[in-house]
Amino acid sequence: MSDTPKSMQAAYVERLGPVSEIRIGELLVPAPRAGEVLVQVAAVAVNAVDTFVRSGSYATEVPFPFVLGRDLAGRVAALGADVDGFRVGDRVWTNSLGHAGRQGATAEYAVVPVDRLYRIPDGVDELPLVATVHAAATAFLALHTHARVRPGETALVAGAAGNVGRAAVQIAREAGARVIATASASDLDDVRRLGADVALDYRDPVLGTLLREALPHGADVHLDTSGHHDLDLAVDLLAPRGRIVLMAGLRARPELPVGGLYTRDGSILGFAISSATVAELADAAELINRMLASGTLTPPRIEEAPLTAARDAHARLEAGALHGVKLVLRPAQAPPD
Ligand SMILES: NC(=O)c1ccc[n+]([C@@H]2O[C@H](COP(=O)([O-])OP(=O)(O)OC[C@H]3O[C@@H](n4cnc5c(N)ncnc54)[C@H](OP(=O)(O)O)[C@@H]3O)[C@@H](O)[C@H]2O)c1
């Protein structure tokens, strides 16, 4: 800690509430306790869930003043007691700060429990990595942890040009699945480049017919990242023993054709990344690192802004003004590349 300053710039709130609660100011640099690592932050992603935690719409324990954000990439600045496997200067990332009692990431320094900290692979830059990890870990949890996708199965990914959808297409392909994707018409070529076998415009008036043609044996896994759940269609498209994964649409209340689901031996699985275990997140991190290093997981379009723009970033995300763009915030005093 000898070279570490006593205070740092951070984006934080004193209480949960609207964007106007966000403050940019100085907080004390936290000291790592046993089993924790102090990281000098190079880049922080801005995710929808950060706005849910800040507003209180996603209930979770937070300490005040509460630093926003959950994903960071940076360099190890100091080690707490009983930390093995990392050294000062190592390039690292995490994607599970800012909820369940843990402080957040949008600051010049952050403390990370060592079991939530992963190395950045050689040749991978902090910005594309941090822009990718939340969505990619979510897609991993959906496809592998919960839906248990197998090689040769067919995965239907709705919202395939979004953050989670892009990652889901690539991770499903990597798992050996055939991928049917839906997205806006202008994104279909991009979704095909990511590896979708079939890409369809979700606004097409005959989408249901086109999906039935593309899925002659049904969908083994159905992942709708858009939060617009048409469970009548999803169940109708489901293969025997198919799995529908729900992970978006906090307030959605769709109708469910019960008979169609159970006569297919189908199941509906829901999950939130915030509830993932340390072991599940580590499994996701291992795959993400491997795919980023090999170039098989590609980042979304990135817009970079200073940490001081955190309020504007939350406002734009809440207004739905970030089509296909991932915002990444960078502290003024970032570690050297
Ligand atoms: N459960 C979890 O752990 C977890 C984790 C991460 C994210 N999430 C949630 O997952 C959702 C997706 O996140 P994201 O970052 O991927 O959002 P995103 O980048 O906005 O992606 C959503 C995509 O859905 C598309 N879409 C909209 N309506 C559609 C429809 N009717 N059919 C098919 N596609 C449609 C959008 O396309 P256009 O923009 O072209 O219309 C957009 O590309 C959010 O609600 C987020 O809160 C949940």
TrEMBL record:
Any Pfam family matching the protein: ADH_zinc_N
Transmembrane feature ranges: none
Record-annotated Enoyl reductase (ER) domain positions: 17-329
Protein name per its UniProtKB record: NADPH:quinone reductase
SMART domains: PKS_ER
Domain of life: Bacteria
Key words of the record: NADP
Species name: Microbacterium istanbulense
InterPro entries linked: ADH-like_C, ADH-like_N, ER, GroES-like_sf, NAD(P)-bd_dom_sf, Zinc-ADH_QOR/CCCR
